[in-house]
TrEMBL record:
An example molecular function term from Gene Ontology annotations: iron-sulfur cluster binding
Iron-sulfur is among the record's keywords: yes
InterPro entries: 4Fe4S_Fe-S-bd, 4Fe4S_Fe_S_CS, Nitroreductase, Nitroreductase-like
Keyword Metal-binding listed: yes
Organism encoding this protein: Solidesulfovibrio carbinoliphilus subsp. oakridgensis
Keywords: Iron, Iron-sulfur, Metal-binding, Oxidoreductase
Protein's name according to its UniProt entry: Nitroreductase
Residues covered by the 4Fe-4S ferredoxin-type domain: 2-31, 33-62
Family the UniProt entry places it in: Belongs to the nitroreductase family.
Length: 262
């Protein structure tokens, strides 16, 4: 199948699809209509299909993913709503004894998969732990690894006292990883986790970045095995998830931004 098919009765030859193609896969013909200039460089981002207001173009690589292009929102939330949401998000380290359903976790990852990735490579992979006991097991393995290497001694001491400072007793966990060869794996996973985090907060969940587990997952075979990380892959981040025990009523200040204007 050709890279694109155009419904010429619908196409207005306005050049939107060509202008929005980030890779140069499309060009305009003599009449301004879209043609495939270099199909090999198309990364299936879907810009050409999504930007067309006339539903006049089909990209075979986008269609191959399955499903139709869904409608976009008609208007974005007001800046004060978005800004308040972003500023008010807090890292949650105390959770209610309430599970997070598999359905909810799957819904969150369904949103997070729309996060941008370098060259639309979509190399982010997920490990999801929806069981509090399994999260506790991972916390114990992480604690043992840190105790063995002598790092974070204060957290190890707290663990011995029955206080989990590694995964905070969270009822669920989401971890991202990519193949070792993924050039932008860390950035892609970080963006995807941020998407998931914000989607979770909007649904009444709390999150906290699981940096200690991430560190252990790339250094301890026992943690990797418990997570099921395939050989040749790197864990780039994780999020604890659960329903917050408390609600934060204020937004603490932050340091002023350090900006170098050029």
């Amino acid at each position: 199948m050709d890279l694109i098919e155009v419904d010429w009765e619908r196409c207005k030859k306005d050049g939107l699809c060509v202008a929005e193609c980030p890779s140069g896969a499309l060009a305009a013909d003599a009449e301004g209509g879209p043609v495939a200039a270099d199909p090999a460089v198309c990364n299936a981002c879907g810009h050409c299909v999504a930007v067309c207001p006339h539903d006049a173009i089909v990209n075979s690589r986008v269609a191959a993913v399955g499903g139709d292009v869904s409608p976009n929102v008609r208007a974005w939330p007001a800046p004060e709503v978005v800004d308040g949401f972003l500023r008010g998000r807090r890292s949650i380290r105390a959770y209610k004894d309430k599970p997070v359903s598999r359905e909810m976790l799957a819904e969150l990852i369904d949103v997070a998969r729309f996060a941008p990735t370098a060259s639309n490579a979509q190399e982010v992979r997920w490990i999801v732990v929806p069981d509090k006991d399994k999260v506790a097991t991972l916390a114990g393995l992480t604690a043992a690894w840190f105790a063995g290497n002598g790092q974070r001694k204060q957290y190890s001491a707290m663990w011995d006292q029955g206080r989990d400072y590694f995964l905070r007793g969270a009822p669920a966990l989401a971890v991202t990883y990519t193949h070792d060869a993924a050039p932008f794996g860390a950035a892609d996973c970080g963006i995807a986790l941020t998407f998931l985090e914000l989607a979770a907060v909007s649904r009444g969940l709390g999150t906290c970045w699981a940096g200690l587990l991430t560190y252990a997952a790339n250094g301890d075979p026992a943690v990797r095995q418990a997570l099921g990380v395939p050989d040749g892959h790197t864990v780039h981040g994780g999020l604890m998830l659960g329903y917050p025990k408390t609600r934060f009523m204020g937004v603490p200040p932050r340091n002023p931004a350090v900006i170098h204007w050029v």
